[in-house]
Write a structure and sequence with these properties.
Blueprint: H1 22-29, H2 34-43, H3 50-57, H4 61-74, H5 79-88, H6 92-101, H7 117-125, H8 138-147, E1 150-153, E2 158-162, E3 172-181, E4 186-193, H9 196-204, E5 218-222, E6 228-233, E7 238-241, H10 242-247, H11 259-276, E8 287-288, E9 297-301, E10 307-311, E11 318-319, H12 326-346, H13 352-360, H14 366-376, H15 385-398, H16 408-423
Parallel strand pairs: 1-5
Antiparallel strand pairs: 2-3, 3-4, 4-6, 5-6, 7-9, 8-11, 9-10
Helix pairs in contact: 2-4, 11-12, 11-16, 12-15, 14-15
C-alpha cells in the first residue's frame, strides 16, 4: 500500500458502492497478466502475506484477479486507492472504465486534517517551481524541503552498489550507495548530487511516482554539510542494469531465450515512457527522459524467472514547456526506445551509427528487408519467433527518420500487452 498517503476513511470503499458492477470489473481484470497481479499485491502488501501471494500466483490469471478483488472488498479498500494502484501499474484501460462509470465516487477528499502527500504537491505549491527555477540558489531547494519528507542524520553506514557484472566498481548504476537509516529502521539507496539542477530534477520526479519509474522517496539532509542527497527505495532482490542483464544471454543459444520475459521487460519500459509522455493531475506537461539507454534501465529479477524493468536517472529530463524543439527531442526519445526494443529481442545493442546503417542499407521492399534482418540476427531461431518478428518491425519503425510522432509510445505499449496476452493463451475481453 502507498505508505506516503494516509487513507481517508471518508472515501467510498469498494464494499460501499452498490452501483459498482463487480462482475464487469472482473471482466476488465481478465486482460491482465500475472505480473500485473503481483504488482497489485505489492501495492497492497499489508493485505497479502507470503503464503497468500504464493497461492494467488499459482492460479490462472482470472481466478487470481477474483481472489485479489475479494480481498480488497473484504478490507473495504477505498476506490481511490484501487484507482491509484491501477494507474501506477499501467492498467489505464480499467482506470478509464472506473472514471467513466464512477467519476463521482473517485473525488478526492481534501480534508485539511489529513496529511496527504499527493494533495500537498497538487495544491499548487509546486507551481512556483517552474522551469526558470532550475538554478542552484538555496531558495529553490528550500521550497522543496518545505513540502517533501526530510530525514536529518548525523552519520550512516554505507556501501557502494556496483552493477554485479561490472569489473570497474566505480561505474555504479546511478552512483548509489546502500545506506541504513536508523530513524526509519530501513535500508535505502542513497544518491549524492554535485549539481543543484540535477538534484532539483530528481526532486520533481518524486511527485511523478510510477511502478516502472525508479524515483526517490525522500530527502536526506546531512547536518554537517550542505550536500544534496536523496533516498531511493531498496528491495533486496537481484538488480542490475539492462546492459549487464543482456550480457547474461551472450553465451546462451537463441532457442533458449524467454520470450515472455522479453515482452514483460519491454512492457514495463513502454509503460513508464507512456506515463512520462502523458499529462496527469500532478504532471501538467508531458516529460521526456532525454537519456534513455541500457544504462538508465534497471532490471529486477525475482523467483520463478519473473523480471520487472524500471527507468531511472532523470537528471536530463525536460518538460514540454521547457524547450523549443520538443518534437525533435521526442523523435530522439522514440529512436532510443527503438534501440532498446532491438536490444531486448536480440540481446545485442546497436549504437546509433549501426542503427542508422540498417536504414541506409535498405535497397528493396521494407517488409522483405526486415525479414532479412530477422534472419541475419538469428531471431528466427528464437521460440515464438512470430512475436519476435513483430517486435523487430516495431524497432525498425521507431528508428526510422520519418516515424510518425503522433503514434507515440502508447501504440507500442498496447501491442506488447496484446502479444503477452496471446502468448499466455488468453483472449482479450476488451473491445
Amino acid at each position: 500500500m502507498n505508505k506516503n498517503n494516509e487513507i481517508n476513511l471518508n472515501r467510498k470503499s469498494l464494499a460501499e458502492l452498490p452501483s459498482l458492477d463487480y462482475y464487469r470489473l472482473l471482466d476488465k481484470f481478465s486482460i491482465v497478466c500475472l505480473s500485473d497481479i503481483e504488482k497489485i499485491m505489492d501495492y497492497f502488501a499489508d493485505y497479502f502475506d507470503y503464503s497468500k501471494r504464493s497461492h494467488v500466483l499459482s492460479l490462472p490469471t482470472v481466478k487470481a484477479a477474483k481472489i485479489v478483488m475479494d480481498v480488497l472488498l473484504n478490507y473495504c479498500v477505498p476506490l481511490n486507492e484501487l484507482h491509484d494502484c491501477l494507474l501506477e501499474c499501467g492498467l489505464r484501460d480499467i482506470c478509464e472504465w472506473l472514471n467513466k462509470n464512477h467519476l463521482k465516487d473517485l473525488n478526492v477528499d481534501t480534508n485539511k486534517n489529513l496529511v496527504n502527500f499527493d494533495c500537498l504537491i497538487q495544491s499548487g505549491q509546486f507551481s512556483q517551481l517552474s522551469s526558470d527555477c532550475y538554478t542552484s540558489n538555496k531558495n529553490t531547494v528550500s521550497s522543496f524541503e518545505e513540502i517533501l519528507p526530510v530525514i536529518h542524520y548525523k552519520s550512516a553506514e554505507s556501501a557502494l552498489v556496483a552493477s554485479p557484472k561490472r569489473t570497474d566498481t566505480k561505474k555504479l548504476f546511478g552512483c548509489f550507495k546502500l545506506c541504513y537509516i536508523e530513524e526509519r529502521n530501513l535500508t535505502f539507496r542513497r544518491r549524492q548530487f554535485s549539481e543543484a539542477i540535477s538534484y532539483i530534477k530528481e526532486l520533481k520526479m518524486i511527485k511523478n511516482r510510477h511502478l516502472n519509474l525508479y524515483t526517490a522517496e525522500c530527502i536526506l539532509k546531512n547536518v554537517h554539510s550542505n550536500d544534496h542527497f536523496l533516498l531511493y527505495p531498496y528491495d533486496p532482490v537481484e538488480t542490475q542494469l539492462l546492459r549487464d542483464y543482456a550480457d547474461i544471454y551472450r553465451n546462451i543459444p537463441p532457442n533458449q531465450y524467454n520470450t515472455l520475459q522479453q515482452l514483460e521487460i519491454l512492457r514495463d519500459i513502454s509503460c513508464g515512457l507512456t506515463y512520462l509522455h502523458s499529462k496527469t493531475e500532478s504532471k501538467k506537461n508531458p516529460m521526456l527522459h532525454s537519456n534513455l539507454s541500457p544504462d538508465s534501465i534497471l532490471i529486477e529479477t525475482r523467483g520463478n524467472n519473473q523480471v520487472s524493468a524500471k527507468i531511472f536517472d532523470f537528471v536530463h529530463s525536460v518538460e514540454m514547456n521547457d524547450i523549443d524543439n520538443f518534437d525533435g527531442k521526442l523523435r530522439d526519445e522514440f529512436y532510443k526506445f527503438g534501440q532498446i526494443i532491438f536490444m531486448v529481442v536480440s540481446w545485442r545493442f546497436l549504437d546509433r551509427i549501426e542503427c542508422d546503417r540498417l536504414h541506409l542499407d535498405e535497397t528493396e521492399d521494407e517488409e522483405i528487408y526486415i525479414y532479412e534482418l530477422f534472419r541475419r540476427f538469428d531471431m528466427d531461431k528464437q521460440p515464438n519467433n512470430f512475436t519476435i518478428h513483430k517486435l523487430l518491425k516495431m524497432s525498425y519503425k521507431l528508428t526510422a527518420p520519418d516515424y510518425d510522432l503522433t503514434k507515440g509510445i502508447d501504440k507500442s505499449y498496447q501491442l506488447i500487452k496484446q502479444q503477452i496476452q496471446q502468448l499466455n493463451g488468453r483472449k482479450t475481453m476488451w473491445p
